[in-house]
Amino acid sequence: MNWLPDIFHRRKIYGDLAEEMRLHLEERTEQLMSEGMSRKEAEQTARRAFGNSTLLEERSRQVWQMPWVESLGSDLKLVFRRLRKSPGFAATVLLTLAIGIGANTAVFSVLNSVLFKPLSYPEAEQLVAVRLIAPGAAGLADFSNGLRLSPSMYFTFAEQNRTFQSLGVWIAGVANVTGLAQPHEVHTASITDGVLQTLSVPPLLGRWLLPAEQNPHGAKAVMLSYGYWQRRFGGDPSVIGRSIEVDSQPRQIVGVMPQGFRMVNADFDLLVPLGFDRNKQTLAGFGFQGMARLKPGVPIAQANADVTRMLPIWMDSWSNGPGFDSHFYEVWRITPALRPLKEEVIGSVGNVLWLVMGTIGVVMLIACTNVANLLLVRADARQQELAVRAALGAGRARIAWELLLESLCLGLLGGVLGVGIAYEGLRLLAAIGPANLPRLGEISLDVRSLGFTLGLSLFAGLLFGSIPALRYARARTTVALRGAGRTASVSRERQHSRDLLVVAQVAMALVLLVSAMLMIRTFQALRHVEPGFSQPEHVQTMRTSIPASLVADPQQVTRIQNSIADKLAAIPGVRSVGFASAAPMEGIESNWDEIYFKGKSMGDVTPLRLFKNVSPDYFRTTGTRLIAGRDLTWTEVYGLRPVAIISENLARESFGTPSAALGKQLREFEDMPWHEVIGVVEDVRENGVQDKAPAIVYWPSMMAGIYGPHTFDAARTVTFVLRSDRAGTEGLLNEMRQAVWSVNASLPLASVRTMQEIYSQSLARTSFTLVMLGIAGTMAFVLGIIGIYGVISYAVLQRTREIGIRLALGEQKGRLRWMFIRSALVLTGIGVAIGLAAAAGLMRLMKSLLFGVSPLDPFTYVSVLIVLAASAVLASYLPARRAAAVNPVEALRAE
What we know:
The protein is of the alpha+beta class and 895 residues long. It has four domains: 3-65; 132-337, no CATH class; 349-528 and 764-893, no CATH class; 547-746, no CATH class. It is 52% helix and 15% strand. The strands form five sheets. Strands 15, 16, 17, 18, 19, 20, 21 and 22 form an eight-stranded mixed sheet that branches. Strands 3-4-9-6-8-7 form a six-stranded mixed β-barrel. The longest helix is centred in the middle third of the chain and has 37 residues, at 396-432. It is globular. The model is unreliable at 477-481 and 484-490 (pLDDT under 50).
C-alpha cells in the first residue's frame, strides 16, 4: 500500500523532482562558469548535456504514477465539472435518486431488523415454538391456527420427550407492585423451569430462578428486566436480595436480565415462577405458550413426530375429573405444528413488510426510468460533441465509460443523500408503525443497511446509465454529425427509447396506484363496520386487579369493584360506569370453554365459545346495543342468581332469533348450575373489525358453581369503562386515580386509555400498510406524470422547426395541440394496458390484506384509469400549448 500516500502527495513529489533537476542544472552551470564560460554559454551547454528536461521530468514522474488512477481522476474531474455547469439537472437527478434510495434503505432496515437478524439468543436456530393445532375443535377458528399448551402437557412433554434439550412454557400477564412509591401495575412473564435454560441468556446480575422456586408453597422469587431495574431502582447493583411486594406477596429479587432481553415477542418488567401444583393439574387449561431447544441435528419434522408420540401418553396420564373420557380430545384432532421461534416472533407481519418493500422497490425502478430519460435528453444534447470525439478516435468503450461514470457518480451521490432521508424515514416508521410490529425498538441503520445502500446506488447508476451509454456509444458518427445541427428534427429512433421508458413508468405507477386505492377502500370498509360499541372517543378505560393475596373473599372483591364504580360515576361529567374481564379489542385473550344449552343436542363435538364476566351497566357504557331482553342488576350479582347474557350471533345460531333465546338455559360444565338467558346484545368485534365477531357468553362478574357445588368466585382483574365527554383529559385521569385510591390505596391503575385509542390500534396494521402504499403510490404517480411532461416538452423543443413549418403552412393550433396530447395518451394507454395485466395478477397476492373489497374491484381500476388519463392530458397540454404558441417566423429564423 506504499502507492496510496504517493497518490495524495503527487504535487509535492513532482515539485521536489523539478527542484532537484533545477539544482542539478544550476550546479553544472556554476561549474562551467568557473572554467571561464559566460552564464549564457554555461546554461546552454548544461542544458544540451542534460537533454530534454520536460521529457526527462515526464519519464521520472511515471515512476510514481498509476495510469488507471490518473485516468479515473481526470474522468471524475470532467464529470463533476459538467455537473457543476448543469446545476438544475444535477439537483433534479440527485433529489429523485435520494428519495428512491432513501425510501428503499429505510424499508430494508426494517426488514433487516425484523426478518433477517437472528434472535438475540445463543444458537437461536435450535429454538422452536411448541405449538399445536386442533382443527376438530368446533366453534373457535383460532384453534386451526394454534392451540396453546396446558400445564399437564408441559409436564408430559418435558419428561417424555426424546428430541429436546430443554422445554418450558410461559404466559404474559400483569401484577400489582406496592411498596415502591405509588402502587403500579407491571407486565410479567410467568415462566416454568426450562424457559431460561432454553433461551440460554445469562443474567446481568444475580442468578436464574431455581427449579425449587417453582414450588407454589416454596420461597417466592422474582427477576427484573433491565428497563424496570433502571426505572425503579436506578440501576443499583445492590438490588439483589431485596424484597418487593408483587400482588401483596413479598418476593426476593434474585437476578436482573441484560438489556435487550425479551421473552420471545413480549416485553416484561418481572419474571416470576409459574409454580404449577402438579397434583391439581388436569388435561385442560390450554393457555400457555411453549418453547424448546432442539437437540443438535434434530429437525423440526422429527420433533413433531416426537410430540405426536407423546399426545396419547398425555391423554392416558391425566384427566379432567371423575367420569371424564381422557381420549375425548381425539375428536379435536390435536396435531403438533412446531415452527422456528423466529417465526413466532415475526408472525404475519412479514407479508406486510415484503409488500411494502416490493412497492418501494417499484418506486425505485420508476425513479431510475425517470433519471434514464433525463440522461437520454442530456446525451442527445451532447450528440454532436460525442460524434466529434468519435471522429477524432475515441472508441465506443471510452465514450460508454464516460457516460456510465457520470451515472455511477450520480447514483453514489444520491445514495449519500438517501442515507439522510432513510434516517428520517426510520423515525417516521417508528412513529406510524403498528404496535405489534416485532423488534420495533431494534430498527436502525447498521452496516448491513449501509451496504445495501451502496449496492443499490451502484445498481441504480448502472441501470439508468446503461441505456444512454449503449444508445450513444454505438451512434454512427457520420449520421450524428449530419443530424446534430439545430435544423435537424428529432428522429423516431431517438424518441423511441424515451417513449418506452414512459410506458414502463405508467405501467408501474398504475400497479402502485391500484394497490394504494385498494388499501384506501379496505380502510373505508373497516371504518364502516359496526364494532359492537358506539362513540369510542367518549369512553375512558382503565384496568385494575385485586389479587387473592390482597383480598381473599370474592364477595368483598365485587363490593370493592362496585364501590370503585360508584366513586367513578360520581365524577363530574361521567354519565355511566361498568366493568368487564376485558374490553373489546383490548388485546387480552378471553376465556373459552364448551357451552351447553339445556335440552339442545350439540352433536358429537360441543362447540367452544368465548365468555366474559361483566357488571351491570357495562353494555350501556360501551354503547353495545341490547337486542332483546334486559341487562344484569346488582341484586342478581350479589344474590348469585344464575343468569347470563349472550351475543346475537350465538342466539341466532342456537335458536333462530334473539327473542327465542330468552329464557333458555346454559352452563359451562356439569357441576355448574343452569343459567337463564335474560338478554341478547349485538355482536362485538372482539379481535378487531377485520375479524368476524365471535359468539360470546357474558356471565355476571360474580357467580356460583364455577369450581363445583357450593363455590363462587369473582373476576379479580377487570377493565373499567366510563362514558364521559371528558374522556382522555388529564383532569379526568387524576380524578379517576383519586376515586380508586379512596376505596383502596393499594390498587394501581393500568392501561388507562380511551376506547378510541384501542379501536385505532386494532387498525394499526391496515393504517401502516395504507400509509406506506399511499406514499409509494403518490411518488410513483408524480414521477410518472413528470416523465410524460418531460417527454412531450422535449419533443416540442426538438420539433420547433417542424412546428414552425406546419403553422406557416396553415396548420390549426388546436390540431397541433391535439397531436402532442394524442401522443401522450397513446403512451399512457400502452402503459395502462400493461399495468392492468400486471395489477390484476399481483393484487391477488394482496388478498389477505384486503377487507370488504375484491382484488379486481371495478371502482378502483376505473378511478385509477380516470386519474392517470386526466393527469396525462394535463401533463401534455402545457407543452402542447407552448408548441401552438410558436411564432413560425421566429422559429424558422432561429434555425
